[in-house]
Design brief:
Helix content: 10-25%
Order of helices and strands: EEEEEEEEEEEEEEH
Structural class: alpha/beta
Shape: elongated
Length: 144
């Protein structure tokens, strides 16, 4: 653990045995710096300098969190985070980097694909295709 390490309201905070914490790091309540395996060696996160980890966040595995990173409350981080980033969500995703917002990569609920509607559309197209084939067969049969 580096200098000026602060656990604010430490209730429920878990710090794994191989976790490394840089200077000027603040961790709020219910944060987990946890492992994802029982294998020997490095199993827990490494936090750089000037990192803030919001309440309830989970940082899991031997991931590296860069300097000047902010991790939002209840975020779950399972991949490395580059320096100067803001991470939120489950799983954690970068929403700002070097002071600039990143383009949204998530879909809005109204834009999510509906597999039932897609299946109905596919069935409608198949029915229309089969009806055309039946009409063509009837037409050819009348011509015989």
């Amino acid at each position: 653990m580096g200098k000026s390490f602060l656990i604010d309201h430490g209730s429920g905070t878990v710090i794994g045995e191989t976790a490394e914490i840089g200077d000027n790091v603040t961790i709020y309540q219910d944060v987990t710096l946890g492992g994802t395996s029982l294998s020997p060696g490095k199993r827990h996160p490494t936090l750089g300098n000037n990192v803030v980890v919001g309440a309830g966040a989970k940082i899991l595995g031997p991931v590296k969190i860069g300097d000047n990173v902010k991790i939002g409350a209840n975020t779950v981080v399972i991949k490395d985070v580059p320096p100067n980033s803001v991470v939120v969500g489950v799983p954690g995703r970068i929403v700002a980097r070097n002071g600039k917002k990143t383009p949204p990569i998530d879909l809005y609920h109204g834009d999510l694909p509906d597999p039932v509607i897609e299946m109905i559309r596919a069935m409608q197209e198949k029915i229309e295709h089969l009806e055309k084939e039946v009409q063509a067969l009837k037409k050819n049969r009348k011509g015989d």
